[in-house]
Amino acid sequence: MEITDFTEGQLNRYARHIVMPEVGGEGQVKLLNARVLIVGAGGLGAPLLMYLAAAGVGTLGVVDNDRVELSNLQRQIAHTTDRVGVEKTASAETMVKALNPGVEVICHQERLEYHNALEIISGYDLVCDGTDNFPTRYLINDACFMAGKPLVSAAMMRFDGQLTTFKAHEGDNNPCYRCLFPEMPPEGLVPSCSEAGIFGAIAGVMGTLQTAEVLKEILGIGESLVGTLVIYDALGTEFRRVGYGKDTDCALCGSQATITHLSGHAAHAKKSQS
Predict the structure, then answer these.
(1) What's the domain range around 139?
(2) Model confidence over 66-84: pLDDT tens digits?
(3) Are 234 and 160 a contacting pair, CB within 8 Å?
(4) Of 23, 104, 225, 234, most Cβ neighbours within 10 A?
(5) Residue 4 lies in a domain
(6) pTM, 2 dp
(7) CA distance 63 to 87
């Protein structure tokens, strides 16, 4: 799509973007042509989907194999009471189409696994990690590195959230998730969302911040969060920025990398489904 292809409706819908020098018509075209994958249609995925759709990101892929549950609605604002029991990807598509019919939604009603991750991710320009478990986070990181895709990652628990961006595939000193967290924590050490709880609004805060970073990466504006971990504390209403660097001994992106394919994730997939 080119600037000259804008319809009257698009000029009106995206007027508040187009008037901004940092975005403009050319930037809006970038958004309309962009393809973004959201892994997880839950607490983080919901605001991601809504604000990316509102911004006019042309194609949104969503990966999730769950159905909407009543307990989701405390924080997963893309879903509604009348859609309890519906596949989350279908519910997300309903929401996106109601908000912006011009956005294409590709539903991947399945788990992201070692055998399908590269195929799914390769069809997009950028990936958002909205998952809530460590095995999938490591899988997404590894697959994005191998597929050469930027990854905007967020996480949350109770009253806290974290956010950063990874572009280790670009080389130089760009770190990956394994540079920041080399080893997966032992099973049971970190409680799940259902065990520890989650302050509902944290999902909105972190998902919206994650969306802003995605839009910045697409537009090529502002300061990237590569090498910076943003930590949010809702109880203290505080943000902290923690710098981190590339680990030259990283098993994935280091000089002597030992992870060269995704088959090592097979064991985690079997355990999670047992």
Answers:
(1) 34-272
(2) 999 999 999 999 999 999 9
(3) yes
(4) 225
(5) no
(6) 0.94
(7) 11
